[in-house]
Each structure stands twice: as structure tokens, then as C-alpha cells.
Amino acid sequence: MSTLPNCPKCNSEYTYEDGSLLVCPECAHEWNPESDANNNSEDNKVVKDANGNVLNDGDSVTVIKDLKVKGSSSVLKIGTKVKNIRLVDGDHDIDCKIDGFGAMKLKSEFVKKI
């Protein structure tokens, strides 16, 4: 009986060892079992607001600093409420729609959770 873990992509039980890697014959996914724990922690990136509160998709936040809107002469004022945020990868880690401004990306360091 095999003690190898199932494939993390397709959950196939038919994994096999190829040197230091594990291989799934069904989806051709290869992974290193030693660094598997490190990869999972990187995939689950934690985004925090200016006060250190963890942000999740669907949260509502408030802008804590006047922000210049790139490509526009207007300014996003302090205290502006943003509803139903979506977390994304990248430098600007919040994707949202703001009433009066439209779709926008924000940095989590300039917002606080409501």
C-alpha cells in the first residue's frame, strides 16, 4: 500500500516518485513534498489593513488618507466608504468600485476595516 499523498491539483491517488519530486500521471502535475507546506502558506497570502486587521473578500473599508486618483484631477477623500472589496495579487491588493469614481485598485495600507 502506497503512503504517498494524493495530487494537490486533481486529488488523484496514483502519484509516484521521480527522484525528489512527486508526479501525478493523470494531470502531469509535479511537486516537491518538502516544499509543499511552504507553497501552501504562500498561496494563502494574508492582507491586513492599516491597523493590522485581516481583510477578506466582501469586507467594507474606509479610506484613511486623501488619495490622488491617477489620470484624474479629483481626490479620493479621507473617510470614503468602500463596500464589497475583492482581494487581488499585486502592489495594489484591493480591487473595488467606489461610488462617484468607478472601478479602482487600492493599497491595503491606506484603508481600515469597518
From TrEMBL:
This is Protein YjdM. Residues 47-113 form the Protein YjdM C-terminal domain. Belongs to the YjdM family. Gene3D superfamilies: 2.20.25.10, SH3 Domains (2.30.30.40). Residues 33-52 are annotated as: Disordered. Signal peptide: none annotated. Transmembrane segments: none annotated. It comes from the Bacteria. Residues 3-32 form the Protein YjdM N-terminal domain.
